[in-house]
């Protein structure tokens, strides 16, 4: 938590370092003069409740660029009044702008020796736990490692128990139960969505199998018709050829010429019948496959759209839930 009014709403960040998952809740600036005491209290309630059962450590950020003021000390006292006095047992002071000290050829000890009594009291109540961060340091990882080691030591000193504010513990517990309830509902909806998509895939597979069966059947029918047409055509050709040869023997040249034309037209008709049969089979298969694909894609799109709507509704419900719980459970006297 910082005295600067930088963060307007609670923001939860998550990272992993050396195999350990670290959650950091950046809370609203307690020095925000635009907010009332009650509004800041609501923000703090949400920050504490969202990290239920409680944070491992509370980081109080102070800049070394300026002298520690009475207003900043008021922020510290305000924090204790919003939570409780035991919060200092979990607090670590973070001094930023450590590079300023190095540029002025001073150490943190030099700074603290001239610090106001209010700041020395803060450090005393926090068990003299502090870490200096240099904004322009080449090795920033070592600074983070020092802080994490201090957090681990602090956690061990408390037996692994996080900070639990008695004022907001019940609010956090209720919120945690409600979140679990909503998550179970969301998981159930997700399972239903997956089952729906799985059913659609099964239907698509069955439709493809039916299309393949239809294709095979139509190809068989087309092949059978082709053979029948060929056999019929061959029979007619043989018969007409015999007649034409007989007529040629009797020098019926004119009639033979007409029969040649008839044979030519019959060949054209046979080719047309084969082509029509092939186009009919191909057209029926293409129409069936197109309809099946369009139906499948439509159902998949509907399932995805429905899933997005449910996720959006769930996020909206969770936001309303946090706001309503915070408003009911954070009356600060």
From TrEMBL:
Domain (AIG1-type G): residue spans on this chain: 1-172
Domain of life per record: Eukaryota
Gene3D superfamilies: P-loop containing nucleotide triphosphate hydrolases
Keywords annotated in UniProt: Coiled coil, GTP-binding, Nucleotide-binding
Family recorded in the similarity comment: Belongs to the TRAFAC class TrmE-Era-EngA-EngB-Septin-like GTPase superfamily. AIG1/Toc34/Toc159-like paraseptin GTPase family. IAN subfamily.
GO function term, MF aspect, one: GTP binding
Coiled-coil residue windows: 197-228, 286-324
InterPro entries assigned to the protein according to its UniProt record, in alphabetical order: G_AIG1, GIMA/IAN/Toc, P-loop_NTPase
Entry protein name: AIG1-type G domain-containing protein
